[in-house]
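help with this:

***
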Amino acid sequence: MMTSIKTKFQKLRLASIIFFIISCLAINPAIASPTNPAASTIYQQRTVHSPDGTGKFYMSREIAKVMGHQGAMWLERPSRENEEKPNLIVDALDLKPTDVVADIGAGTGYLSFRLAPRVPEGKVLSVDIQPEMLDIINFLKQENQINNVEPILGRENSPNLPPESVDLAIMVDAYHEFSYPREMMLGIVKALKPNGRVVLVEYRGENPFVLIKGLHKMTQKQVRKEMSAVDLQWLETKSILPQQHIMVFEKQNNSR
């Protein structure tokens, strides 16, 4: 009799433990979801980190803090033309008139409006996660009567682009600030047409004389490692800018 009571108690205790675990999973989906970065080994959060960073690390790189819409004037500064040579960037893309180009992290549309005349039969998708930036793009679009620039509100983990809709995706001084770089890049790869291209323009992390905060620069080696992780193949690096790399990658036919 005593043994029977003990057995029932053990079963009841086990059932209670199982119920508690299931309840926790239901309350906190992040625990249950294997794709949630917080529940995986994709990202690491560290308490000791750069004051310019988020404390969140991806593939040994600390993710930089995002420039908010309050910094819009910095993006439109007059000296940017000489510092970054944006027209050289546009020339280097070898665009076709019918191309659909995604400007990821478009900000105020500084590059988008320079891309638009190069794709008169295509369009530029200006993606940003800050509605305030898209408001600026919409204002400038109407002010300058530009019809082939389309502002798109992205999310921290998605560019919100349709599958196989984009010929080229470009990120200028933006990728290093992505909160979820892996998820964003997987979304971008999915949005690329077969053999579509990805171009990253980043300040040269290898060069200590490039006077940009360390977390806002990237080395070729680091970029190539992170792009390889999402099945993008490096094609070339163009060294035609004063301080930045232009790194070109291509979607593989078997990419997800």
